Amino acid sequence: MSKYNKSKKESLQSTLRRMIRKFDDPILKMVCSPVELNQKDEALRISDLMKKVLNTTELGVGLAAVQIGYPLCICVLRIDPNKFKFQVLINPTIVSYGEGKITTMEGCLSYPKFFCPVERWLDIKVSYLNEDFAKVEEDFHGFEARVVQHEVQHCQGMCLVGDYYRQTLKASSEPNNVFTPY
Asked: What is the rounded distance in angstroms from the CA atom of residue 152 to the CA atom of residue 32?
């Protein structure tokens, strides 16, 4: 690859990475609209863009469309960041939860380099449309369940990592304030 082509590729990757909305961008609080059948082409175009953006991140395993400025219920998963295998969930809804929960450290592409403890269900069942707009019900377990729950919450205008981040900032800026995570 020539220097010019390498520079052009790095510039494109940088541009794609900058699409990720960060910190308290108001769009991150928006409740996303469900994708309608007549929006299939737009949804597929957005999900392709999401895959490209996710590929520019080193450790990103999931991305919601709202994180790149599209308030539609679309999530893209890349559970293993070393592989280029993606799963697209359109209009995902968690229909049932398993028995157990676990608290582990979690991060978010919209809150870079910030990690905090988040409690999540270990097992969930999710209903969604795939890229062919076929209805799917799928069980997710462990880490995959954690990622899906995180991205679905983005579609609902929520981010537990962001909430924790804001609480941490508030606690650190107020004298004699003791911060207790939820």
From this structure: 10
N residues, the chain: 182
**Has 58 been annotated as catalytic?**
no
Q: Tokens representing 167? A: 């609480």
Tell me the CATH number of domain 3-173, given options 3.55.30.10, 3.30.420.40, 3.40.50.10490, 3.90.45.10.
3.90.45.10
Q: What is the pLDDT of residues 9-61, one digit of tens each?
A: 566 566 676 789 998 899 999 999 999 999 999 999 999 999 999 988 888 99
Read off the pTM: 0.84
Domain segments of the chain: what residues?
3-173
pLDDT in tens, 77-120: 998 877 778 999 999 999 999 999 999 999 999 988 888 889 99
Which of 172, 170, 20, 49 is closest to 107 using CA atoms?
20
Give phi and psi for 158, each to the nearest 5.
-125, 150
Of the candidates 106, 137, 144, 151, the residue annotated as catalytic is 151
